[in-house]
Amino acid sequence: MKDTFKHQGLRQQLVKILENKGITDTRVLNAIGKIPRHLFMDSSFLDHAYQDKAFPIGADQTISQPYTVAFQSELLKIKPGNKILEIGTGSGYQTAVLCELGAKVYSIERQNELFKKTSKFLPKLGYRAKKLIFGDGYIGLEDEAPFDGVIVTAGAPFVPKPLLSQLKIGGRLVIPVGDDVQIMNMFTRKGPKEFEQEEFGEFRFVPLLEDKN
Questions:
Q1: Which residues contact 67 (CB under 8 A, 6 or more apart)?
Q2: What pLDDT digit, counting tens, does each position of 75-112 carry?
Q3: Alpha-carbon distance 52 to 34, whole Å?
Q4: Does residue 56 fall inside a structural domain?
């Protein structure tokens, strides 16, 4: 669990890359600059940890590209104390970014192998989500709703209705929608049945799977 000066230097280079790609939220950039991404990956991938690329993490899942993590985090406009529902805990890297931004994070993972690994690993780094849950992200987390924001970290073939219904008024759902290539969507809840939809271009994610594995 080492985080060396070399790693820290590589992180600052990564922050510069993200700034050059248009990420402007300083709190998001500071979070990326602080979190040791290499610890979320297998040691064989250490050389790749601070490249702006996605990499496999097991269970046919990936650790998202840092730009994508930063982009989705920026769209959420998180304020300290906001309740955020994350669909797809994965490696826990995005969870750590949300925690670093001061969010109260509720995160759902449907791959048991990843769930077990990440729920042990995150607290070791000092990142404590309010709840890490092994379950089906399509149904959200009704018990803890409403949320200030919902972030989906896998490609969804459609927008799950429960995720919209679990938003507070003014809350945001950031979700990549599509099959092979996804369009990043943001839905802002304007009223009980009123949502504003915005699109932010193409991204590539692993698919969002239903049911538990």
A1: 17, 18, 21, 23, 52
A2: 999 999 999 999 999 999 999 999 999 999 999 999 99
A3: 16
A4: yes
In sequence order, the β-bridge partners of residue 115 are: none
Number of domain units in the chain: 1
Whether 74 maps to a domain, the answer reads yes
Report the alpha-carbon distance of residue 17 to residue 194 in Å, rounded: 37
Residue 92, domain extent = 5-203
Q: What is the CATH number of the domain that holds 107?
A: 3.40.50.150
Q: Would residue 213 count as lying in a domain? A: no
Active-site residue, 91 included? no
Residue whose tokens read 């048991």: 112
**Annotated catalytic residue: which of 64, 73, 91, 119?**
64
What separation in angstroms does the CA of 166 have from each of 30, 150, 196? 29, 9, 15
Average pLDDT over residues 115-135: 94
CB 89 within 8 A of CB 109: yes
Asked if residue 115 lies in contact with residue 134, where contact means CB atoms within 8 angstroms, the answer is: yes
pLDDT in tens, 152-177: 998 899 999 999 999 999 999 999 99
